[in-house]
Amino acid sequence: MAEHLSQSELDYPFKLLEYFNGFRVSKVIFSACELGVFDHLLKSQKPLPAAHVAQELGTSVDGMERLLDVLVGVNILEVELIDGKACYSSTDVASLYLAKGSAKSLHDMIIYQSQTIYPLWNNMVDAVREGKNQNEKTFGISPEEIFQAIYRSEEEMLKFMGLMNSTWVLDGQDVVTAFNLSCFKSIVDLGGCSGALARELSKAYPSSIVTVLDLPKVIQIARQHFSEQDDAIVFQEGDFFDGDIPPADLFILARILHDWEENKCLQLLKKIHTCCQPGGGVLLVEALLFENHRGPVMAQIFSLNMLVQTEGKEHPPSQYSNMLSSAGFQNIQVCRTGKSYAQINLSGC
Fold this sequence. Notes:
Layout: H1 7-11, H2 14-20, H3 22-35, H4 37-44, E1 48-49, H5 50-57, H6 61-73, E2 77-82, E3 85-90, H7 92-97, H8 107-121, H9 124-130, H10 135-139, H11 146-150, H12 154-177, E4 186-190, H13 196-204, E5 209-214, H14 216-226, E6 234-237, E7 248-254, H15 262-275, E8 276-286, H16 297-309, H17 317-327, E9 330-336, E10 343-348
Parallel strand pairs: 4-5, 4-7, 5-6, 7-8
Antiparallel strand pairs: 1-3, 2-3, 8-10, 9-10
């Protein structure tokens, strides 16, 4: 490690200290979202003193002022002195990504990180020691029942679906346009959850029929909470492991394979191959690791999250290529978009 550090970093470990405090910065942003800080500042349309924000959101003035000051320090909020009093306002980034009402809001993603991922990561030491997820210790649910843990109540299901919705609102367009998919007239998004990625597909390829296949309870919640008036996508109840998979030209597996151990992934890919129309294919969307184990750090962090939450992991391209080849797929192409969830394998039947 030392050979990669400057002498100034060796003399005083600024970067290490920044990493040590990373969880505190995360929790500041999480807490501000849960309290409604960004929504309130966006609605105000003018800088507000901490006392006003505290009164409206039901917090202590002292606590709110300290929270707002840190948000200013990390460049998420702005502050100015008006008549000698500190008044706070949102930055463009906070208004666009952290307020609930924005079209690109990551609010649901943040709530899930705070209330589900954060508690799981408190048990990271045990996950590393044991080599298994921490759902039992964290939520009292068997480690083998991954999605029973994720969907342990309707409230938790909504949180997870909100996370997925935020993910594809952010990265979906890059995913669906990384390859030209216009030749595929029937597309099935397996485990498509809220339908957010399917909507991006439908917008990019309006002549294609796009179907979301997911568990019955997920589809019911999607129709109730995430459907849109002008939806061009089709929701279909099913179980891609234990039930039938409808035939299609293209199957999407977006952030699916990383949940499961390799044999189960291979079983699913073989099943998809048998359902694939001649000339069809499968599109995998995952966070690809580098072959040399040197990153990307976000994908490495995602892989560690799979350890504490599921039975899977992230892989480098060669691992997915081997699985796809073993399942019968050919002409494997890889595209990295350089963003969190937009690394893709397109493979033909």
